[in-house]
Each structure stands twice: as structure tokens, then as C-alpha cells.
Amino acid sequence: MKRPVQHHFRVSLTSSVRTRLTLWYLAMVAFIMCLFGGSLYVTQTFLNSDAAESRLETQLYQDSQQFAQIYRQALPDRQALTALRLNQSSQEMVLLLRPDGSVLDARGPLTSSEIQQLRAMAEQNSEMIDLTTSQNHSHGWWAWDTTYRVLITPVLNQNARVASLLVGLPRPHSISLLEIWLFHGTLALLVAAIGGYWLAGKALRPVKMITRTANEISATDLRRRLHLQSRDEFGELAATFDHMLARLEAAFKRQAQFTADASHELRTPLTIIDLEINRALTQLEQPEAYRHVLEQIQAENEQMTATVNSLLLLARADTGQMTLDLQEVDLSDIALASVERLLPLARQSQVTLATGDLPEVLVRGDPQYLGQMMTNLIENGIKYSSGIGKRVYIELACEQESRGVVRVQDDGPGISNDHLPYLFERFYRVDKARSRRPLLPALSSKPGYGEPGGSGLGLSIVQWIVQAHGGEIRVESKIGAGTLFEVRLPLLNMAEE
């Protein structure tokens, strides 16, 4: 037999829950960082800009006064201006111009084009000007144009303007903060992505365990369990999965047992029929002997037909194909008819059928199936109470004007508590070695009634009939004291409500 091909479902990286959780986590972190960083950037840019500008202009005034004093002393002596030590910062530009615009000294990050721009701006007689350099200055990863705040100071000698001093410093801007934020933000997102992916994998580990266990389970081995002890949603999922596996294992065991029992029940009459036919063909010569063989074959055929009919009824009930012909039914009529039908079997088994109170108990139900229920219960009592002096007792009652009660009690050997939970399972027998006894022909010929030889389906059918009518059935038994079956069905007035 070819084994079914197993299809392994592969989850792509982009569609996996782990990746999606990581991306959602990363998006949330990025949103928080952007919100925080943006607020910080706006605060630094707008709230601190005035203070930074004020500090810059103060520095420019101080440097301009210092540099102007140095140049004022050097110009009359015609000292080499380029040799003077001004102690300006590395980013500070210094330009000294004659009144005609010619350059006396130039220091700092100045290009010829920038000098020309400053010369033109100096002629406007403005005290403070801004110059954006055409050269990009790189800071870290980024390249930015730099804007200088330039202070123009006249250099006087005996109240005469001998030169113009231009001192410039880069204007404060938020690029340094932006660079820091971008660098650390990118690093934080990278760490968050790695951490989020690891956390998602750790959180989804039970799901991987469930997947692995599910792949290892086969129809012949359902014993595997997860046994996850965590008290979270995944622990609840694993516990549900374990319970599902337990139910499946029990269902598969019942199915396997059902198949084995059904095969055994059908094989036995077929074997007997085959043996009888062979005996007739090889050994018998008298017509009377052939008649006996045919009667035996007929009995076994009826046995097999009744078993198949019971199996078919239960199968249709399991698939919801059974429909009930609901009508007003008096259980006392059903009980009396069943007792009358089973009197020949009771006499044959030397069992007395006794009836107690049989008041009118009206229910809404299917008379055929209710009759089968009553017959199966009484026949079951007869079968396990054989012997002189034994009896089966049947009575009816109403319970609190809401339930009709059917009680069937026998004087049989009783059933141990170990067997009671399984009594209504299909093909279950308390006594596995009990031989099958054929019913009377008058009973075995009735379709749907009785269970020749006790194949173990009668009580299963009873349970289905009771449940289909909205009732319940229970059993009490004690070794040596007999067994009581009690059925409760909704009364007619309650069923109509």
C-alpha cells in the first residue's frame, strides 16, 4: 500500500509571523524615535536659536575688537600682516581690506570667490552680513553648505578709516544634532530589529513545537503530546492541541475497535454458513438433513442482516441522515406492545416479564424508534437474566410533570463499575466470551428489532434514540443484584414548549 505523500508547507520569510512581528515592532520603535527626535530637533532649532545667535555675535564683537587692535598697531609700522598672530579658531575667517577694496590680509577658510563676495558686501556699509560658502564642508556622513555670520568693523587711525576688518564665524545650526540623532537612531533601529526578531522567535517557539509535533503525528501513532507548561496564550493553544490529539486518539482507537468487532460479527455467521454448505455438499443425503442446514443458514443470515441493519442505522445517525416521525406517543402502549412481543423469548429463557405501574405517559416522539428502544432494553434484561425464578421488571412514571421515566430492571448477575462507562459503546460486551444465542424467528424477522446473539449494538442504538428525543439514559448495577436502566424523556407539554 502506497503511503500518502506528505506536503510540507514552507513559510516564506516575508509572510512569516515572526518577520511581521519584527517589522511591526521596528515600525513602532521608528515612529517613537521620529516623534521624540523631531520634537527634540524642533526644540533645539527654534527655542535655542536666539541664545546661540547671541553667543555667536558676542564672540564676533570680542574677536573683532581684539583683531582690530592688533591690525591698528601693525599698519603704521608697515609690519608684515601675514606674520601676525591673531589666535583665531580654525573655522573663523578674517579679512582685512583697504578702503579701495584691495586685500591686506586673509585668513581662515576663504576662497577667492568668497573674498570677492565679501569685498562686494563690505561696500554696502552694513555692520553684520551673512555669507553662505559655495564649498561644502563635510560633517560625518553629510556634506552641507556653511553660513557665516560676518561682522564688519572699521579700523581707524586718528579717526581716519584706514581699513575694514571682516571677521566671520559659522552660524549655529542643528546639523550636528541631526547627525547625532540619525547615527544613533539608525543604530537603535538596527539593535531593535535584531532584538525584535529574536524576541519574536522566542515568543513563537511554541508554535514551532506545535508544527513539528503535528508533522510527526501519523494515523497509527497519536500518542505524541506537547505538554507545554507556560501560562500564556500559547500554553492555552498547546493544551487545546493536546486535548484534540487525545480526542483523535480515542476516536481512532474506537474506529479500529469498531472495524475489528464488525468484521468479527460478520465473519462468524459467514463461517457457519460456509461450513454448513460444505457439510451438506459432502456428507448429507437425506432431505430432512438438508432442511436442517437451510434453517441454520437462514438463522445465520438473519443474524448477519440484523447486525448490518443496526450498523446502517447507527451510521446514518452519525451523519445526521435519520429523521424522526414525531407524533404524540403514549409510552404505556409502547411498553405493553414490547412486553407482548418478547413474551415468547422470555418463556424460552424461563424469565418472567413483570410490569409495575404503567400510567399514561405522553411524549412527542417516533413510535417505531421508541418501540425499538423499549424492546432492546427488555430483551437485554431477558438475555442476562436467564434461569428459573428470574424476572425483568418494567414500570413507567412521571417526574415533576416535565419528564416521563421508563425503568427496566433485571435480576441478572449485575455489571461491575469498570464496565459501566463503556456499556453504550458499539460492540462492547461485558462478557467477551458470551456465546451468541439466536432469537426466536418471530423476533429476528422484525427489521430493526432485537439484536440476535448480542452483537453489542443494541444499547448504542438505545442511547441514540433517547438522545434524538431530547432525553437521557443512565444505568445502575451491582454485582449479584441485577441492573437498572432508567430513561427520561420530555413529556408532550414540555416538548411543545
CATH class of the largest domain: Alpha Beta
Number of strands: 12
Secondary-structure arrangement, i.e. CATH architecture of the largest domain: 2-Layer Sandwich
Number of helix segments? 12
Task: Give the topology string: H per helix, E per strand.
Answer: HHEEHEEEHHHHEHEEHEEHHEEH
Strand order within the widest sheet? 2-1-5-4-3
Number of structural domains: 3
Shape: rod-shaped
CA radius of gyration: 52 Å
- Let me know the CATH homologous superfamily of the largest domain: Histidine kinase-like ATPase, C-terminal domain
| Structural class computed from helices and strand pairing | alpha+beta
Proportion of residues in β-strands? 15-25%
Report the CATH topology name of the largest domain.
Answer: Heat Shock Protein 90
Mean pLDDT: 78
Q: Which segments are poorly predicted (pLDDT under 50) over 5 or more consecutive residues?
A: 1-9, 137-142, 433-453
How would you describe what is shown here?
By secondary structure, the chain is α+β, with helices and mostly antiparallel strands. The protein has 3 domains: 48-172, Beta-Lactamase (2-Layer Sandwich), CATH 3.30.450; 206-268; 323-496, Heat Shock Protein 90 (2-Layer Sandwich). It is 49% helix and 19% strand. The chain has helices spanning 17-47, 49-74, 112-122, 175-203, 205-216, 233-282, 287-318, 331-348, 367-383, 441-444, 458-468, 492-496; strands spanning 93-97, 103-107, 128-139, 142-157, 160-170, 327-330, 351-355, 362-365, 390-399, 403-410, 472-478, 482-490. The protein has a 5-stranded antiparallel β-sheet, sandwiched between helices. A 5-stranded mixed β-sheet has the order 7-9-10-12-11. β9 and β10 (403-410) form a beta hairpin. α6 (233-282) runs antiparallel to α7 (287-318) and α7 (287-318) runs parallel beside α11. The two termini are 55 Å apart. Mean pLDDT is 78; it is low at 1-9, 137-142 and 433-453.
